[in-house]
TrEMBL record:
<keyword id="KW-0732">Signal</keyword>
<dbReference type="InterPro" id="IPR011330">
    <property type="entry name" value="Glyco_hydro/deAcase_b/a-brl"/>
</dbReference>
<dbReference type="InterPro" id="IPR002509">
    <property type="entry name" value="NODB_dom"/>
</dbReference>
<dbReference type="GO" id="GO:0005975">
    <property type="term" value="P:carbohydrate metabolic process"/>
</dbReference>
<protein>
    <submittedName>
        <fullName>Chitin deacetylase</fullName>
    </submittedName>
</protein>
<dbReference type="GO" id="GO:0046872">
    <property type="term" value="F:metal ion binding"/>
</dbReference>
<dbReference type="GO" id="GO:0009272">
    <property type="term" value="P:fungal-type cell wall biogenesis"/>
</dbReference>
<dbReference type="GO" id="GO:0016020">
    <property type="term" value="C:membrane"/>
</dbReference>
<keyword id="KW-0378">Hydrolase</keyword>
<feature type="signal peptide">
    <location>
        <begin position="1"/>
        <end position="20"/>
    </location>
</feature>
<feature type="domain" description="NodB homology">
    <location>
        <begin position="95"/>
        <end position="283"/>
    </location>
</feature>
<dbReference type="Pfam" id="PF01522">
    <property type="entry name" value="Polysacc_deac_1"/>
</dbReference>
<keyword id="KW-0479">Metal-binding</keyword>
<dbReference type="GO" id="GO:0004099">
    <property type="term" value="F:chitin deacetylase activity"/>
</dbReference>
<dbReference type="InterPro" id="IPR050248">
    <property type="entry name" value="Polysacc_deacetylase_ArnD"/>
</dbReference>
Length: 304
């Protein structure tokens, strides 16, 4: 019975993706074509002439690029050299777990929303644009239940491996999908794999985005890693949270979590109680940042 339910879920997702493409969106999980009329129009709206001349990184699709042995001048790469520039890496709010989930929406997202609702918690969802186009009702529910939406690009491709124009396409198609689903124009983003340097930052700023990383390896739940058991993941987070709780707690942290699959979603109800048990508060990005205007624009009343 479970096998048939999984098959039905997969089929429904495939059909939703096909419907999204019929509406004019690019193929899912692929970098959008920069030669399309829509992308050309977007490129006319942004001046990229001042972008730093940092070479495009080489990488395998679906993964982060390998790090150089030495950092290039003015590169400031976050995951390779711990250079965050003006990225947001901590929650400024004292004693607060910055609650964020990447890679949705997916078929697993509703179960996570059910859990968060039961605990009266609001998160920031860093959305993959192609998933939004396929599953807009999940995003509409996120808005209706008080969650915050942010960008995680269209295809989840490492941004340092893309041209400036491709970065624009990744961001704008995601922006369009969310805007059409909710009436909200995104303001915050998280780069896939945390892969960002000063060239990428330049393009993102030109598009009006603020970058939110996470608070280092100690606050990566590793929920995405199939080689680690849940018990190991829980043990690692317990150690990190014990260390945090023993400190002054003058600032909070951003945790890296995902709603990309049933396995990552099932881990959340095991991890969040670790924070509750240590009297740590929870907040999404606007709560952490004290931002009363968490979107670039509200073009129309959100669909709820």
């Amino acid at each position: 019975m479970v096998k048939y339910l999984v098959s039905i879920t997969v089929l429904a997702t495939v059909l939703a993706t096909v419907q999204a493409q019929l509406k004019g969106y690019p193929p899912s999980e692929k970098v959008p074509d920069v030669k399309s009329a829509q992308v050309k129009a977007w490129l006319k709206e942004v001046d990229l002439s001042g972008a730093p001349k940092i070479p495009i990184a080489k990488g395998i699709p679906g993964d982060a690029p390998k790090c150089n042995k030495r950092q290039l001048p003015n590169e400031c790469h976050w995951t390779c050299f711990d250079c965050a520039a003006d990225d947001i890496t901590v929650c400024p709010r004292a004693n607060t777990w910055g609650l964020t989930f990447d890679d949705g929406p997916t078929a697993a997202t509703p179960a996570l929303l059910d859990y968060l609702k039961s605990k009266h918690l609001n998160a920031t969802f860093f959305l993959i644009g192609s998933n939004v186009a396929a599953l807009p009702k999940h995003v509409q529910r996120e808005v209706a239940e008080g969650h915050h939406l942010a960008s995680h690009t269209w295809s989840h491709t490492a941004l340092t491996t893309l041209t400036n124009e491709q970065i624009v396409a990744e961001m704008k198609w995601t922006e369009k999908a969310v805007l059409e689903a909710t009436g909200l124009r995104l303001k915050y983003m998280r780069p896939p794999f945390g892969d960002i340097n000063n060239r990428v930052r330049y393009v993102l700023k030109k598009l009006g985005y603020l970058v939110v990383d996470w608070t280092g390896d100690e606050f990566d739940t590793n929920d995405w890693d199939p080689e680690l058991s849940d018990s190991k993941k829980i043990a690692l987070m317990t150690k990190s949270l014990n260390k945090y709780a023993a400190g002054k707690r003058t600032k909070g942290f951003y945790m890296l979590q995902h709603d990309q699959s049933a396995s990552t979603v099932k881990l959340a109800p095991k991890l969040l109680p670790l924070g509750i048990a240590r009297n740590i508060s929870f907040g999404n990005v606007p709560v952490c940042q004290g931002d009363s205007q968490p979107y670039q624009a509200v073009v129309k009343a959100p669909v709820v």
